[in-house]
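Standup notes
- DV: blocked on the single-chain target, sequence here:
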Amino acid sequence: MTRRLVGTFDAARHSRSQVIGYLKRNRKHMRYEICLAKGYPVVSGVIEGACRNLINDRLELTGMSWTPRGAESMMRLRAVHINKDWDAFWKHRSQSERSRLYGIEDSGFREIRDHEIRRAA
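- DV (later): unblocked, structure below
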C-alpha cells in the first residue's frame, strides 16, 4: 500500500515538473500582458466553452465509448454541423465519392441522386 502511494506521488510530481518545464520553455510565446494592453482578447474561457460544446456535449453522453479515430471523425462532423457548413460538406463529399468510385465528375443529375440517397437511407 505504501509503495503504491509513493508511486502515485512520484507520477504526480513528474507530471507537474513536465508542465512547469513546458511553461518555462514557452514563456516567450505567452505574453498576455502585451495582448491585454493592446486590447486583444485572451480567450481561454471561450476556447474551453467551445471545446465543451463541440466535444464533451456529444462524446461524453451516458454509455458511449469511442476509439480515437471514431471520436475524431465525430468531432469533425460535429464541427461541420455547428458551423452550418453541412450542405457544402455534403456536396464536396458526394462529388469526391462519385469521382473515386465511378471516375465521373458531378453532372446535372445531382439533385435526383441525392434525393434517391436520402430516400434509401
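- Follow-up: The helical segments are 2-25, 32-37, 44-59, 68-82, 86-102, 110-120.
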